[in-house]
Amino acid sequence: MAPSLNTHVAVLGGGNIGAAIARGLVAGGIAPAPGITLTRRNAGGLSALRAEGFDVTTDNVRAVRGAGLIVLAVTPQQLNSLLAEIRESVDGARHTVVSVVSGATIAEIRKHLGAGVPVVRAMPNTAIAIRQSMTCLATDRDAREAPEALSLVKTVFDALGRTLVVDETLMIPATALCACGIAFFLRAIRAASQGGIEIGFHAGDALLMAAQTALGAASLLVEGGNHPEGEVDRVTTPQGCTITGLNQMEHHGFSSALIRGIVTSAEKAAVLYAPKAAGPEPGN
After folding, report:
1. For residue 149, which of 102, 83, 96, 104 has the smallest C-alpha distance?
2. Is residue 277 pLDDT above 50, yes or no?
3. Does the pLDDT of residue 275 top 80, yes or no?
4. Is the CB of residue 243 less than 8 Å from the CB of residue 236?
5. pLDDT band at residue 4, thresholds of 50, 70 and 90?
6. Cβ-based neighbours of 44, under 8 Å, separated by 6 or more
7. Nearest to residue 41, comparing CAs of 57, 30, 53?
8. pLDDT of res. 259
9. Measuring CA to CA, how many Å separate 98 from each of 12, 69, 109, 184, 255?
10. Which of 104, 214, 231, 237 is deepest in the core (most CB within 10 A)?
11. What is the DSSP string of 55-110?
12. Spatial distance between the Cα atoms of 139 and 142, rounded to a whole number of angstroms
């Protein structure tokens, strides 16, 4: 049974990932919809969430004051202005801050909120809405409050999929592999379904077959603890159709394209949040 939070949750940024987190918390029985406040600058974007029973507002300060757990889910470009807006309302004695903002380090967030605020970085993906996320977590090693904060946040995200605690230096690579990665695997499933259409299946049937096959493949690894190549060997026979298809894909760069895509996404994630350097003094 999933643990229930004994505190109100404020998700600052009710976009795709923020909404997915909120829905996952409800689906997992961790918090009721009225116990979660979501914010957006544009009130019109909150209507669907309001209809689902969530508390919604455009007032970040109001959301923070009523919460114990604060989730920062804005874009990297919006983070500094958000932190400046809420800093006077964040209390290190009663708030735990979780940041899902790509590239923003705990040290950079603490510069805005103060050294005494517990901050944990989390990198989930949108499958969190159905409690199937792969979420990487990190905190700074020297913070006295880190063990308690990390334990709280891990308990929450454990109920929303799988978690892995990593060194903070690996959070940008985690963004590429987990958060961006879900799009890569979705595109692979879409391509497989298009292949299915070409060989005779209707579009809906082909998509179902491709998606369920992908789910089965992933389950062999996650549930069985096996290596991908071991499972590949089970379905490839000499002069068979599977090895013929695999070799054709590799001739066209399937593996190398996926690897390069992940590496390129990591390189981009590293520069999404870059604090602006101070400009020259007037007259210089």
Report:
1. 96
2. no
3. no
4. yes
5. low
6. none
7. 57
8. 96
9. 10, 8, 10, 26, 34
10. 104
11. EEES-HHHHHHT-SEEEE-S-HHHHHHHHHHHGGG--TTT-EEEE--TT--HHHHH
12. 9
pLDDT tier at 45, thresholds 50, 70, 90: confident
Closest CA to 142 of 121, 169, 115: 115
Q: Residue 159 — pLDDT band, cuts 50, 70, 90?
A: confident
Q: What is the DSSP string of the chain?
A: -PPPPSS-EEEE--SHHHHHHHHHHHHTTSS-GGGEEEE-SSGGGGHHHHHTT-EEES-HHHHHHT-SEEEE-S-HHHHHHHHHHHGGG--TTT-EEEE--TT--HHHHHHHH-TTS-EEEEE--GGGGGT-EEEEEE--TT-TTHHHHHHHHHHHHHTTEEEEE--GGGHHHHIIIIIIHHHHHHHHHHHHHHHHHHTT--HHHHHHHHHHHHHHHHHHHHTT---HHHHHHHH--TT-HHHHHHHHHHHTTHHHHHHHHHHHHHHHHTTTS-PPPPPPPTT-
The phi, psi pair for 11, rounded to 5°, reads -105, 105
Average pLDDT, the chain: 90
Decide if 21 contacts 71 (C-beta within 8 A).
Answer: yes
Q: How many residues does the chain have?
A: 284
Q: What would the two tokens of residue 10 be?
A: 């404020």
The token pair at 204 is 């809906």
